[in-house]
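debug: dumping io for the single-chain case to check the tokenizer round-trip. Nothing else runs in this session.
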Amino acid sequence: MAGSIAAAGHGPGALDTVQKAAAQLEQAAQGSPQLTTRGITRVIVERPPFDVRDYLWSGTVGVATLAGQMAVVLFLTFFALCAGDTFRRKLVKITGPSLSRKKITVEVLDEITAQIQRYLMVQVLMSLLVGVATWLVYWALGLEYAPVWGIAAAVLNLVPYVGSTVITGGSALVAFLQFGTVNMALTVGGASVLIHIVVGQLLTPWLTSRASSMNPVVVFASVLVWGWLWGAWGLLLGIPLMMVLKAVCDRVEDLKPVGELMSA
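debug: decoded output
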């Protein structure tokens, strides 16, 4: 095997080989212009040739965009933490001179803080559970670097639905490369799917609805809607935003029917 690797190192690169094969397929698929029976030239619109580097470049741009968005989120979080309770005091101040309005505002802010704290606690506990379960199952199946997969599963579990898909697909691919059989790839991928179904689809929505007093249907629908609007960040922030909305609806008289509809 070492000899084949060494031989491959002196030959053309994998990228050049893929590019050459794509060019040959593109050339075979193209036909030369032909003349019709009346001498009219048929026009063939040629597509640009397939270039692997273009796809690699687009993927690199996507990663850079995600890194930039993450940096913006980190800066916003940092400045929000530095601000302390400044915005809280300002919100109480701008509600007006009425003592009842100030009391309602304080109650809403306290409820939002408590619900988000409980939600974050649930997410951290479920992520730890997913990470430990993934580590133990992959170790039992003989997959290499099982602790690394456990850490990755715990971190990506914070992104609903997308994180589990990435772990399942990536671990199945690595299992196929390691064991060389489709059965082991399906076994590893199936184990990951089972873990995320039990934890992510059963335990997490139930505990989240208990922690936030929201209906599980509302929790699931909020993830879908905000994920459709904002992508990965919508999946991450959708449930906290709905918690804020419910806390406001529960304290405002005209919006109490909406809060009741969202309640568990």
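debug: round-trip ok. Residues 109 and 139 are 45 Å apart (CA to CA).
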